[in-house]
Specification:
about 325 residues, alpha+beta, 7-stranded antiparallel beta sheet, 6-stranded antiparallel beta sheet, 21 strands, about 15% helix
């Protein structure tokens, strides 16, 4: 971490920061009301067709830097910092000639096992260019002039928003992607990178290591819409990925009605549709108590610095 960024972290965290530990591997950082998961800056891969080599890290269009969330009185806000644009990555070999973000999947049911929570997951579709294909049927009831009821059904395909009762699938095989988490980790290491999944190690017990990243919703019931947020919204809410030297080309996010989500602990996961990078974040939708524990905040900064140094040494 750069010295100035570290100083900024300490100053901000001295009044509002707290380190939250979830399980033996997950480490999330809270600064100014935001909970951050910071991914490896050296594990997003992209194939350089001109030079016929694999590019990894900050020069890759698939590098994910971090994800954050904040619980407000009536909304839960999510933010992503990444090199992947919401317009997607154009590629002839992809299903719709474009590789996009998958869906943000929220697991409140079994935070120890992704597979065990299938059919009870929540998910947010926020990227209109992705390959998610879930039919949503809505009914509108009207009364005509003679007092007769009429029900009109409207079918939409995967509107942006929050879904419940979700099952997922992997679309990496149709988007020129990796066949498993293990393959991704291995290829990253071959070109000098170091893979991680934000709050989880690349090889973890939450996902099956020899299976492909679960990128998109397969089925689910539409619960409600989301509000896409811009730079001005995030400035007003105090979001600052720069505290962790997360310098992705794009920062974007959205909010969802808090009443539509359970109150409790969750694991959030997000992957590119090719599986070239992904990130997991541990959190809770319960409103956190304010804290002025400067010592704990400083410990968060120091622990983050140690983690970054170890990753840099391992990849050197």
């Amino acid at each position: 971490m750069k010295l100035q960024a570290f100083k900024t972290l300490l100053c901000t965290a001295a009044t509002l920061g707290v380190l939250a530990l979830t399980g033996s591997q997950a480490q999330a950082f809270q600064v100014g009301g935001w909970n951050y998961a910071i991914d490896s800056f050296n594990d997003g891969t992209e194939w350089d067709a001109t030079n016929k080599r694999l590019v990894v890290g900050q020069n890759s269009d698939f590098e994910f830097f971090g994800m954050a969330f904040r619980v407000l009185e009536d909304r839960v806000v999510f933010a992503i910092n990444s090199n992947l644009s919401l317009n997607g990555y154009d590629l002839d070999g992809a299903r719709n000639k474009k590789i996009s973000y998958g869906d943000l999947v929220l697991n409140f049911t079994n935070t120890a096992s992704f597979d065990a929570a299938q059919s009870s997951l929540f998910a947010i579709r926020f990227d209109s260019t992705n390959d998610t294909n879930v039919k949503v049927v809505t009914e509108t009831r009207t009364i005509d002039s003679r007092g007769r009821a009429k029900v009109t059904k409207t079918t939409r395909t995967s509107p942006l928003g929050l879904y419940g009762g979700v099952t997922t699938n992997s679309l990496t095989n149709v988007n020129s992607g990796y066949s498993s988490h293990q393959q991704h980790t291995t290829e990253v290491a071959k070109v000098g990178g170091s893979a991680s999944l934000g709050d989880l190690d690349a090889n973890n017990s939450y996902f099956a290591y020899n299976t492909a990243a679960q990128t998109n919703m397969k089925s689910g019931s539409y619960l409600g819409g989301i509000n896409m947020l811009g730079a001005a919204d995030f400035r007003a809410l105090g979001l600052n990925f720069g505290n962790f030297s997360a310098t992705g080309n794009y920062t974007f996010g959205f909010s969802v009605d808090r009443s539509l989500l359970p109150v409790g602990n969750f694991m959030a996961s997000l992957f590119a549709e090719c599986g070239n990078d992904g990130i997991v974040m541990a959190g809770s939708t319960a409103v956190p108590e304010p804290t002025t524990m400067a010592g704990t905040a400083i410990a968060a900064g120091l622990m983050y610095t140690r983690r970054r140094r170890k990753k840099q040494e391992a990849s050197a």
